[in-house]
Description:
This protein is of the alpha/beta class. The protein has helices at about 5-15, 35-45, 80-95, 110-125, 140-145, 160-170, 210-215, 235-245; strands at about 1-5, 25-30, 45-50, 70-75, 80, 100-105, 130, 155-160, 175-180, 185, 195-200, 220. Helix 4 (about 110-125) runs parallel beside helix 8. The mean pLDDT is about 90.
Amino acid sequence: xxxxxxxxxxxxxxxxxxxxxxxxxxxxxxxxxxxxxxxxxxxxxxxxxxxxxxxxxxxxxxxxxxxxxxxxxxxxxxxxxxxxxxxxxxxxxxxxxxxxxxxxxxxxxxxxxxxxxxxxxxxxxxxxxxxxxxxxxxxxxxxxxxxxxxxxxxxxxxxxxxxxxxxxxxxxxxxxxxxxxxxxxxxxxxxxxxxxxxxxxxxxxxxxxxxxxxxxxxxxxxxxxxxxxxxxxxxxxxxxxxxxxxxx
Length: 248
């Protein structure tokens, strides 16, 4: 059972889910709150379960900031395999031939960072987020909550081989941008604005490996206005927002 908690993630799921909701979906609310959400969920076939308090032992989202509303979904499948995404990517290149088309997350472990990146991605018009099957934070309820439901507005693509995927993207005409603190990296503001990109982001501790950076067409950095105090890099979620803003 997959639990979607928080007002905006629940609203996002109800909005993007076409037709009836999966069988067994329940909207759980405290009291008589969120009447508009209750009606929309009921119209789509969800069962409504009301609680007098979120302290009830049967409340399905304990110990989280759930805002007194959550959906329990028995059949939650949001990720798509790489093979199913290729046609959509090619069509996207035709209609939006420049800017940041997608983000590739390489072993990002923290759901807070992943959710933050998803939120920034939707804000700046990104359509695809790619990530590997292993050693990567999956699409969890926490990721949905941190993204304010934005993850549900993206094509989340689960891939197998990183290098084969990047090679296939290049063959489609996509340019690969990797983040780096190396001196050879160029300031992100100097990237050409006339082509489609996929931004590659590394994990919280090690960033991108040298072998992965070798696959990138550009290595970019975010340069501070002056020498910072004991800080030589940014949180990956913050860095993603800054770079995406420069690619719009």
